[in-house]
Amino acid sequence: MSTLKGRTALVTGGSRGIGRGIAERLARDGARVAVHYGERKEAAEKTVAAIEAAGGSAFALRARLGEPGDAEALWAAFDQEADGLDILVNNAGIAGTAGIAGTDREEFDRLHAVNVRAPFFVIQQGLSRLRDGGRIVTLSSGAAQRPGMMPDLVAYTMTKAAVEALTAALARELGPRGITVNAVSPGIVDTEMNARLALDDPSSRAAIAELSPLGEVGSPAHIADVVAFLASADSRWVTGQSIDATGGTLL
Q: Which residue numbers in the chain have pLDDT < 70?
């Protein structure tokens, strides 16, 4: 496919998991993809190599999100490789580890710094680079739709609810430029972030799969397909939405 030929995309946290799946799918659709990473340079380089081996175009860039100057560092690195942007995917994020009683101030602040503040300022400073008719897609979570389902991750869920509020507000503001702004809300996906769920154990995997009427555990490819639609011209009449990509687990 070449639906994104001539477009440039940036995927934060694009070296692993859902981010890698998105980066590879956008490249397969013809986009030149900036694969952002924070620490794992080798993983980012492997993602770039996989994209290039499949005939796509990509480059890696580093910036530690959640720290002072993170957006500035990210865009400075991007500007060395590209002169404009068409698709911004805010995928990078971290998960919480405890409910309200077990969440200390340090973890709370870290969650908000990476999951809320970073994408806010990455978008803010990227708008001068994002061409009219562009796309912004931010990864939310099914937990933001049903907060009561995951009370043990309340601080994390709060950050994703904030992302959805940002999505709706920006869709209104950026609409006159033809820029669509949407969020994608995965459920449980088989990635390193969900290692605590022991998805490599057959019984645990089967129990998680039963949560979806489709009888599967989510994969990065499932989410990447939804993001690819939102990045394409076919999504031109969809904006300000949070797309449920939980495989029906919220039904």
A: 1, 147-149, 190-201, 203-204, 208
**Catalytic (active site) residue 156:** yes
Residue 162: what are its φ and ψ, rounded to 5°? -65, -40
C-alpha span between 198 and 167 (Å, rounded)? 32
**pTM of the shown model:** 0.94
Residue 140: per-residue pLDDT: 95
- d(CA 249, CA 55) in angstroms, rounded, equals 36
Q: Please, what are the domains in the chain?
A: 8-245 (3.40.50.720)
CB under 8 A, 24+ apart: contacts of 67-71: 67/113, 70/118, 70/121, 70/122, 71/118, 71/121, 71/122, 71/124, 71/125, 71/126
What is the per-residue pLDDT for 187?
81
Q: Which residues contact 202 (CB under 8 A, 6 or more apart)?
A: none
Annotated active-site residue in 126, 139, 156, 159: 156
